[in-house]
């Protein structure tokens, strides 16, 4: 899989980027908002990459893809589709802290959503983040997600204040 935007390339994971994935996972935003996606060692990142690669060509998910800058080819994060219960899919994304504030997450999600919704055969995608994650809420809203709930809900097995939204393709 390969998606190119004006500034980004989204493509399949390869084992050789384990160091980048490890380093990108360590920033304070990742630890705060998606602690289950923090890798404590390069080896742990490599094991996860191997698992994610094994999911390509399937539609059970998760389907995760690294995001690179087109100029320089720097790995700056990832986008993913993750299956939830009942045939529902959720978008996920992370841009490493040193690359945030440049609109990369919005650009990646906008390009990724229609391609992956078609790939997994869904006509809606959910976006879920902690309510305090203002940047993530902004990305979802800028990408056409409609808010459906904000309040206490389940987030990674804990009761937290969450923001839930839904995206549907334009008709």
How does the SSE layout of this entry go?
Elements: E1 2-4, E2 8-11, H1 18-25, H2 28-33, H3 42-54, E3 63-69, E4 75-83, E5 89-95, H4 104-120, E6 125-130, H5 134-142, E7 146-155, E8 158-167
Parallel strand pairs: 5-6
Antiparallel strand pairs: 1-2, 2-3, 3-4, 4-5, 6-8, 7-8
Helix pairs in contact: 1-3
Could you explain how this protein is built, in words?
The protein is an alpha+beta fold. The protein has one domain (2-123): Gcn5-related N-acetyltransferase (GNAT) (Aminopeptidase, 3-Layer(aba) Sandwich), CATH 3.40.630.30. It has helices spanning 18-25, 28-33, 42-54, 104-120, 134-142; strands at residues 2-4, 8-11, 63-69, 75-83, 89-95, 125-130, 146-155, 158-167. Strands 1-2-3-4-5-6-8-7 form an eight-stranded mixed β-sheet, sandwiched between helices. The longest helix is centred in the middle third of the chain and has 17 residues, at 104-120. The model has no long low-confidence stretch (mean pLDDT 93).
